[in-house]
Amino acid sequence: MEGSPGPSDLQEQLKEREAEVGVLRNRLSQAQEEIDRLRRENEQLRQELRASGRGRARGQSKRKAKRKRSGRKAGKGRFTFRGAPASAVTKGPSQPVPVTITQCPCCGG
Hints:
This protein is elongated. By secondary structure, it is mainly α. The protein has a domain at 1-53. It is 42% helix and 0% strand.
């Protein structure tokens, strides 16, 4: 078995992997501590915003007790569709208009 590692090689690899696992666990615990610290800081900042009255969306403010109703008040004005203007009514049959140009001045067509 030329390609298979000996027992001493396996033990050496095991020690290297255990050392690597220890380093990774240490980094993981540091990262978890950082995450916890940032979460606490975030919550503290949110509480400060709430206490100062900021951080509230515009739509979440309290409504007025007596709001005005939207739209026109009942009984005010005529509610009909707009009619045609009085000047648009024709006062007789259409009159012929003399046309002097017989061809298009641009293309001659």
